[in-house]
Amino acid sequence: xxxxxxxxxxxxxxxxxxxxxxxxxxxxxxxxxDNRGYQYLAGLHGVPGWYCWHHQQNAxxxxxxxxxxxxxxxxxxxxxxGLRDRxxxxxxxxxxxxxxxxxxxxxxxxxxxxxxxxxxxNLPHAKPPLVHSTTRRPGRVDGLPxxxxxxxxxxxxxxxxxxxxxxxxxxxxxxxxxxxxGVVASAAFDPIFWCHHAMIxxxxxxWQVQNGNANISTDLLDVVxxxxxxxxxxxxxxxxxGYDYAxxxxxxxxxxxx
Length: 258
Prior knowledge:
Layout: E1 6-8, H1 16-30, H2 38-42, H3 68-86, E2 108-109, E3 112-113, E4 120-123, E5 130-133, H4 147-154, H5 159-177, H6 192-211, E6 243-245
Parallel strand pairs: 1-6
Antiparallel strand pairs: 2-3, 4-5
């Protein structure tokens, strides 16, 4: 904690104790069969909930809106709260794509199944049905976003230009991991999904540190990020949500400069 805020660390900066706590929190969530559990939370994204926003589209809404970044920030917040309900010390870490952390790939750790490696989806009545353990088929190392690509995205001062460019980088990582991560319907069931999106959220926050909320449309500010009890304006400041990324603290004015 720093200034009362929980700090989301890079996966590569986690201590062994941090990793153990994270695996424990994931593992406990995966054992819960109701709406507090991993399958329910992951299922809000694609199958069976289909609440996610991608490329200005949502399966539940005919309108086109740039809600990719705010919707996923609300989503991560709710997932992180689920983890902390199990293990209060846990904060969701972000995955630096230039690194290959083993915490996601080891089948077992300290004699226990590694809950960060895979998840067994059991949704036989969903449309389409999903009943399998998540898989990955990662591509070549040079298929992941480079620092230069990320720097180019962050330099874009226009909100629409920035969010579209960041979503393209986001898509590239999903495609690189492949397997379930390469399919919107099942992506959130892969335990690596959440750390990937924490990286996306971190990049957006670093952009906000430089640009405030720039020219984000005021028409979006009161849009509700279903199924969560947040409007867009409620998620624009991560400090108001109780967290920060190291060396990124600042005050962001909602719907304007700052």
